[in-house]
Design brief:
Elements lengths: L2 H4 L8 H10 L16
Length: about 40
């Protein structure tokens, strides 16, 4: 499809480094986890 050639992206091996870089850019990072006990 080639989207990786049209959209700027970066690869991080460590997700902690990814989160730190996102926060440094002033972007709000929100994580959601679903489990069998999740309520709707």
């Amino acid at each position: 499809m080639g989207a990786e050639e049209a959209v700027p992206w970066e690869y991080y091996e460590n997700p902690i480094d990814t989160a730190k870089d996102i926060k440094k850019q002033g972007i709000c990072l929100v994580l959601i986890e679903q489990t069998n006990q999740s309520k709707s």
